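During the no-cost extension, the postdoctoral fellow (Dr. R.K.) reprocessed legacy sequence entries with the updated structure-token encoder. One reprocessed record is reproduced below for audit purposes.
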Amino acid sequence: MLNVAIVAGGDSGEYGISMKSGKQVELHMDRSLFRPFLIEIRGKNWNYRIGRKNFPIDKNDFSLSIGKRKIRFDLVFIAIHGTPGENGRLQGYLDMLGIPYTSCDVTTSAMTFNKGFCKEVVASCGISTAKSMHLFKWGAHTEAGILRELSLPVFVKPNNGGSSVGMSKVNQKKELNTALIKAFHEDGEILVEEFVKGRELTCGVIKTNGKIITFPVTEIIPKNEYFDFESKYKKGMAAEVVPADVTLQQSAQCQDISRLLYAKLNCKGVVRFDYIFTGADFYFLEVNTVPGLTAASIVPKMARAHGWSFTELITRLIGEEKSRQ
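Re-encoded structure tokens follow.
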């Protein structure tokens, strides 16, 4: 039986969602195959909890001591959205210790977490992306300069982050400065991106038994103006249609693009690609290399539509990683 550390929490605005993801993974993990340990990471505090008592992780070898019992982990299931689990930092640490993990490697994680850099790579693959500007907090930029390059409406969002934390849609010039301040509060880099009118579609991809598999394409229909944090995590604020009401050809096109990007970006584990579909073309939005795994998250719904339970999804993720060893 494998000892599996489920790491959750992290140091971003997605901490709460990550903890929910980790708890769902722990709940649905097959106990006949795996012995799960939910590890909460928050800054320098890395702890396994039994009741109200915390047992700290020894960061020298990522082990856990409970009384006289020392537990070493065979694998780490990464459920941290944001830093340090989605941007490559945790992956680099685990690589140095030689401990396998279920998500993308350090290079892919770092590059895809940076939305601006990722868009450049995706565009080089011939995939459409919205016109945008990558800005730095201490760089030279003005509202007038932004509006000379881009046409309203635009989205302003942290360049390194997820769950739409710090994101705004700007419809009028007077709203731009507030949106810039909000995004820069979350990150020293931001992305200002032209609005592309269309339907928001998403496709989950996983590698299992050495083969890249795509889940059914899903349409996200938020009640708010766009798929913001509230729409993602508040019940009833968004409809997620699985499978999306698109033609077989359109679905196949979205899946083909997603398989291509999964391979080109050297992804690992389960990944979700988000697009705006104009009716004629798919515009890449972003890639989630550690997508949500809460009870309300999209990937588990996609997996169910594909015919997999949450437990089977987890088992396949762990099994694929162990087969690489």
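The chain has a mean pLDDT of 92. The two ends are 16 Å apart (CA to CA). The remaining legacy entries will be reprocessed before the final report is submitted.
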